[in-house]
Every structure is written in C-alpha cells, then in structure tokens.
User: Fold this.
Amino acid sequence: MTTVDELLDGFDHVETRAEFEARIRDGEPLTVKLGLDPTSADLHLGHAVVLRKLQQFVEAGHKVVLVIGDFTARIGDPTGRNELRPPLTTEEIEANMQTYAQQAGKVLDMERITLEYNSKWLSPLSMPELLRLLSQVTVAQMLEREDFRVRYSAGTPISLHEFLYPVAQAYDSIALEADVELGGNDQLFNLLMGRHYQRHAGQREQICMTVPLLEGLDGIEKMSKSKGNYVGLTEPAEQQFGKLMRITDEMIPRYARLAAFCTLPETGKLTEGLNDGSLHPMTEKKRLAEEIVARYHGRDAAEAAREYFERTVQRRELPADNIPEMRLGAARRVSQVIVAAGFAESKRAAERLISGNGVKVDGILVGDPNAQWTAAEPATLSVGSRKFVRVLPNEE
Assistant:
C-alpha cells in the first residue's frame, strides 16, 4: 500500500501539505488531475517525472484523470516564454494527440486512468460564461506571473489570448472538481489559479503539487524537443542509451533521482561516491543509462544497448583509422556541425540528411533535425556510410 510519505516524496512544492494529509487521512479516494498539452509529437523523460507521481496515485486507489489539452494547446502555454508562442494548427494538435495516450502508457496503467480532452467543456463555453470567468481575475494578478511580468517590463508584446491560458486550465479543475492537481514547478501559477477559480465556483480548493523540472542533455535548459536536448520515451533503446551517455558527470545524481526514480538516500550515496572518488563517473553513467532504458524497453534491450555503446563508442569499432578531426567551433546543433564538416551545403540540406536517418553521433542515430550537439567529449559524426569526422570540444 502506498503511504502518505511515498505520495509526497519527490514533490518540491505542496499547496498545502496539511490539507493533503488531512484528506488522505479521511480515506476517501481523491480526484487527481494532470494536464498535458499536445504541443509536440513525443513525450520525453521530463514528462515522465510527473507521470510517475501520477501513477503512484493510481496505485494508491485514487481516481486519476489525464487531461489532454486539445483546447488549451490552441492558445499556447506562455509558461517560460519570453516571446509570443506561435499557435498550433488543428492538424498539428490532432497529429500530436494520436501518440500521447500510447506514450503515456510507458509510465501509466492506462486501463486505470480516466482520459479526458478539455475541448469537451471548454469549447461549449458561451461569451457570457467567458466574461464571468474573466471578471474573477485582474490584470495585476496576471502580471504577478514571472514570464508575463518580465515580458511586460521588457516591452515584449503579450497577446490578450495568452491571459486566457491559465483561466482555461483553471476551468479544467472546475469541470473535473479536482481534489489534487500535479504539474512541473513552472506550472505553479496555473495550478494556483485553479484554486482561485474553484473558490469562486463554491468548490473545495484543489491541492497543488509540483515536481522539479528535469534539465535536458545540455544540463542547462529544461528538457524540450524544441531545444533538441531530450530523450523520448519511445525512442529506440540504443538511441536512448547513447543520448544518456552524453549527460555531464555533474548531472548523474540529478538523472538518477528524476529519471531513474532513485530514492533520496540512494541519490545521496551516489553523490557522495562521485565526490570522494569511490565511484567512477563512466561506470555510474552506464549503470544509470541501462536502468532508465530498461524501464521503457525491458532489461534485455537495455543490456543490448549498453553492449552496442561499449562496442561502437568505447572500443571504437567504427572506421576510426585516419578519421579527420575538427573543433566544434561556433556550432551548437548537429545540423551546423554537418555543414561545418563540409558534409552538406546548407543547414536545410543537413536537416534533410538527419530526417532521412543518415546521421549518427558515436554510432547513435540522430532523429531530430533540431538536435543540439551535446557531447562534452570528442565524438564521431558519421553521415551515410562513408563520411566520418571526429569532433573535438573547443579548447578552454
């Protein structure tokens, strides 16, 4: 049976903890909500952090609702944006939605999950109903949100429709009468807005619980497909393993905690061992990568992915003899490295090579035309079967 401490473990903010513990003690199943906007075609390890916590509520016997934000995706979440987010087309949203439930099933028991689409209750809203909702929040309250405040101070345009996003997400909580809402810690403003609107609707206010954001392979910005620093939940095992081997040594404990779901004591021992030298970073990175891959592909596939990495990268079973070398230079994306190496005439041509599955880094297929170059150590770039170059980090 899942305990209260296990449910709370991993959250960096709970609004409010006392309310949560009291409701758990009451013994009634809670309605626990998580919303995901289908803004890309893939879920990644960053999404898995909160999905795993949602699954714990499933195992504890609560009613869990996964909300696919097909309506809110039309508005575009302004969270973390320093500029206006281009709206998605209906076709893009529908294409992305097709894969979300399947990919979420890598972490969630979908047979015990209620799947909802928020267009069900947001599309029928009338103008009088929308005006009533908008009258319950002020512009000053909206500008308390950091990304809005920063953009307003900088004179960067904020479209009025962006103010609708937290209102629409909050209405999800009213429609579902949510007791608990989960999200990343960048979503706290939106989650608290749900409490605000539930109070106006005469409902009991939801508990807001947020998880830390997982940094991408660059170790700096949050994991995102648009930044090319992600590991997709459904990527091939070899590709997942190869990507994970590119994280910096400093990020090993962070990925152990948030992507491999190690406990705090386990993560503490790992950190201590890496700091005092009793644990070798390469050994622990391979162990970590194998554990993460096994969660999504099974132990056999994870072991095979590790063997492939050791054979092709560590033992250099690539045509390593007489491979030319180059410095990374100003290149930041794989496509830019391809152009700098002379393997393509333009960035667009390089992106076509990547889309055609003709590009590998250290033997690992690069599938995203926007992928960043994340290797901190010398790495072999191959284009097709005959073009190879050893890319060296820039000198300090």
Remarks:
- The chain has three domains: 4-211, 227-317, 319-396.
